[in-house]
Amino acid sequence: MYVLHRDDGSITGVVTGDKHYWKDLIRVGHKFLFLASEDDRIINFDTAKYYVDVEKKIAGAPHLECLCPMEPMALTVDKTEIAADGVDVARISGIPLGSTVTIAADGRIEFQGEADDDEIELSAAEPATHIITVTGPLQNLSTSVQVVAR
Q1: The domain 76-149: what is its CATH number?
Q2: What is the pTM assigned to this prediction?
């Protein structure tokens, strides 16, 4: 099995081929890991929950050691309920710098942007259920928290 990936280690796909298929992949410009199909860990793995550690690969580590599971983010929310008065604030911290933060209220996106701090504050003037989703960096799974303004 060949795990295809970008320069940053994000996985773009998985293909099967014999142990000589790598020549074709190189010819068309793919970056890849070759993983033996008999390894139980890689059978039916979810490509959305793994990444390739390109630094390990460049250092010459065995390809199986370069396939790494993404870890959940350790987000902290100081309040899951706030007053809908525009003054009360919930603080969400533990956000990795450079992550994409999306705030949706009752299904509509109110904000989307890159985190330039490890904490955001949320207040609301109207009652709504807010879902704050943090995506990235590559080594982390996307994580969501909910704050309700009443």
Answers
A1: 2.60.40.10
A2: 0.76
